[in-house]
Design goal:
This protein is of the alpha/beta class. The chain has a single domain, classed as Rossmann fold. It contains five helices and three strands, in the order αβαβααβα. It has helices at 13-26, 49-59, 71-75, 78-89, 99-106, and strands at residues 30-34, 63-67, 93-96. It is globular and about 35 Å long.
């Protein structure tokens, strides 16, 4: 499910649950969320927002792809840079530049749940 760039910012669990409900209704196994829809606290790992949002997606067995340029956020935080790198190695949370990159990753064998 591709989320439009315009709309309510995801600043916590409530917004994550709203997205998950929509994804479930649509039968989506992944949500592509534009970086513009994430509140600044998501990128401040100490705030706990990223952990809470990602945990909700994991609980509902739905992948989350943050789509867009996160270089500005990563440049200011070693911890965030490590978080992005480690997330991109897994199958739950990815940070991708654009939908084309996401499509390529999703086409890899074993990525989409149930495939």
């Amino acid at each position: 499910m591709v989320v439009p760039a315009e709309g309510e910012a995801v600043v916590g669990e409530r917004q994550a649950l709203d997205l998950l409900g929509d994804a479930s209704y649509r039968g989506a196994s992944w949500v592509a969320l534009p970086v513009e829809r994430l509140g600044v606290e998501f990128f401040r790992l100490r705030s706990g927002v990223a952990g809470a949002v990602v945990q909700k997606f994991a609980q509902y067995r739905t992948g989350l792809a943050v789509v867009g340029d996160v270089a500005g956020h990563v440049a200011g935080s070693d911890a965030l840079r490590d978080f992005v790198r480690e997330s991109n190695r897994g199958l739950q949370l990815w940070f991708v530049a654009d939908l084309a990159e996401l499509g390529g990753r999703l086409s890899e064998p074993g990525v989409i749940r149930g495939s």
